[in-house]
Recover the amino acids of this structure.
């Protein structure tokens, strides 16, 4: 059960289609969040994917720009499960496209907060680092 997770409940750091104004924001987050604020993920690079981005951990890279989303307590468990499905994340599955991991993200005031982040799974990250297209400014919203 998700609620037995020792990191429960953490906010989410979103950097792609879940950001405000993007395709999945209203589908998954509208009416289910207590707050959303700008944030940055240090030591990560952003890569263009097939209609969505991948963040890849790389010391000294970044930051990746996104939003820190805090779910309403009554929405948390269901939202976490739905985001796992959206990102096709299954704990321990070697076929994952993304891995959900807890990382420190920076708020605009310089403070940090631990949040769930969906990073490119190891096999996906290796391919991106080898032949992917990096978004040099780290911001999915500026790709247009």
């Amino acid at each position: 059960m998700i609620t037995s997770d020792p990191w429960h409940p953490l906010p989410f750091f979103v950097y792609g289609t879940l950001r405000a104004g993007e395709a999945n924001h209203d589908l998954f987050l509208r009416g289910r969040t207590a707050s959303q604020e700008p944030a940055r993920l240090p030591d990560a690079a952003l890569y263009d994917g097939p209609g969505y981005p991948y963040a890849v951990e790389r010391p000294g890279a970044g930051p990746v720009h996104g939003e820190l989303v805090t779910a309403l307590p009554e929405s948390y468990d269901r939202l976490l499960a739905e985001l796992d499905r959206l990102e096709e994340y299954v704990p321990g599955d070697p076929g994952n496209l993304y891995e959900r991991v807890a990382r420190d993200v920076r708020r605009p005031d310089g403070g940090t907060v631990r949040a769930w982040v969906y990073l490119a799974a190891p096999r996906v990250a290796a391919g991106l680092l080898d032949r992917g297209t990096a978004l040099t400014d780290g911001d999915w919203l500026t790709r247009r």
The first strand starts at residue 12 and ends at 14. Residues 38 and 103 are 16 Å apart (CA to CA). The chain has a mean pLDDT of 92.
